């Protein structure tokens, strides 16, 4: 595997925790390339059917991985998705699991139009730390970090920390 000059970062967490806001801002400040997996799947029609219960398309994980593999090998990618164990471990240098207080998450998801089972399941996913546990099982524990994502101040703090980490990584690897 060739040496990457820029790191690959995964931003993950339950829908509504602020991955997209953080990811776009991070890309602006670091010059890394931001990829929202939902948008990528929609643009390339990378689906494997439709889930009637959750009212959403089903991601074709193999096609998503194939679509991104070459870019990930080059480095400099920020990947945003609410799941993480579908991605190869070799892709990421660091993983940030964003966490939000469940009452706040409930309000955010409700304002997005989530209702019923979809709303309840996503809040429960956050309560039970499902995405964090998934990340800890799928990747080396040293590269998985939880970040609180409740307030604009926490967003700023997370942004500063990740920008600093990225700059340090590039100094150390170039």
Strand order, main sheet: write it out: 2-5-1-6-7
Radius of gyration, in Å, reads 16 Å
Q: Helix count?
A: 7
- The outline comes out as globular
**Please, what is the average pLDDT?**
96
How far apart are the first and last residues' alpha carbons, in Å?
A: 16 Å
Instruction: Tell me about the largest β-sheet.
Output: 5 strands, parallel
Helix content estimate: 40-55%
Helix and strand element order: EHEHEEHEEHHHEH
Structural class: alpha/beta
User: What percent strand?
Assistant: 15-25%
Instruction: Tell me the number of strands.
Output: 7
The low-confidence parts are none
Could you please describe the fold and organization of this structure?
The chain has helices spanning 19-30, 37-44, 61-74, 102-111, 116-127, 130-138, 152-173; strands at 9-12, 33-36, 47-51, 56-59, 77-80, 94-99, 144-148. It is of the alpha/beta class. A hairpin with a 4-residue loop joins strand 3 (47-51) and strand 4 (56-59). Helix 4 (102-111) runs antiparallel to helix 5 (116-127). The longest helix has 22 residues, at 152-173. 31% of the residues are buried.
């Amino acid at each position: 595997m060739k040496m990457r000059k820029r790191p690959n970062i995964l931003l993950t967490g339950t829908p509504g925790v602020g991955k997209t806001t953080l990811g776009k801002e991070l890309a602006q400040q670091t010059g890394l390339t931001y990829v929202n997996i939902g948008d990528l799947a929609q643009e390339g029609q990378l689906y494997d059917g439709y889930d009637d219960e959750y009212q959403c398309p089903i991601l074709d994980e193999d096609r998503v991985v194939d679509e991104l593999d070459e870019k990930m090998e080059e480095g400099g990618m920020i990947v945003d998705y609410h799941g993480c164990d579908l991605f190869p471990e070799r892709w990421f240098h660091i993983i940030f699991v964003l966490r939000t207080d469940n009452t706040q998450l409930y309000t955010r998801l409700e304002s997005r139009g989530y209702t019923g089972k979809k709303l309840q399941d996503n809040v429960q996913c956050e309560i039970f730390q499902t995405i964090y546990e998934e990340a800890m099982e799928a990747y080396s524990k040293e590269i998985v970090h939880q970040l609180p994502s409740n307030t604009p101040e926490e967003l700023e703090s997370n942004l500063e920390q990740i920008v600093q980490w990225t700059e340090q990584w590039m100094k150390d690897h170039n």
